[in-house]
User: Fold this.
Amino acid sequence: MTAEFNPDAGERGDHVASVAVLIGVIAAVIAGATIWLVLTDPVTVANSIDDGEISPLVRQLAQVIITALAGLLDYL
Assistant:
């Protein structure tokens, strides 16, 4: 068996790397926002965990991310 050069293989690898980086960035943003929410609003987190209802937690998490993005855009 001989290995053949496939020019599309490098391009596919670039796409896979781009998707992996995008997923990593999104995961890091969500993790950071979750940590921030636990530190700044532990009552909401505790109530969400206690009740088993995650909608208030998701709502607060989205609010933290939107506030951070708005602050970033104001800075730029």
